[in-house]
Amino acid sequence: DLDCIKRYPWELEFADKQTYEMCVEAVRRDGMLLEHVKFDELNLTKEQLYNLCLIAVKQDGLSLKFIKEQTKEICLEAVKQDGFALKFVKEQTEEI
């Protein structure tokens, strides 16, 4: 549940039923936990998906490697947080 994730964010991987709030809490603490988000079970809106990914890359730019649908904004934030995230940008532009 959410209280457990607040204390132990890495437990997200083992949660029977994830919620958007649980996932946000986990990636806010460790962006790399985006790897354990069960996107297929969550049924997120595009806005929720974008926000979750943005929170993750702002915390750890390397979490970009777990994002399938990358936007320019998400890529820029990831690279700003960690320059090494550039290697995970699918479509590099002059700006990125």
UniProtKB/TrEMBL annotation:
It holds the Pfam family DUF4116. InterPro entries: DUF4116 (IPR025197). It comes from the Bacteria. Residues 52-91 form the DUF4116 domain. This is DUF4116 domain-containing protein.
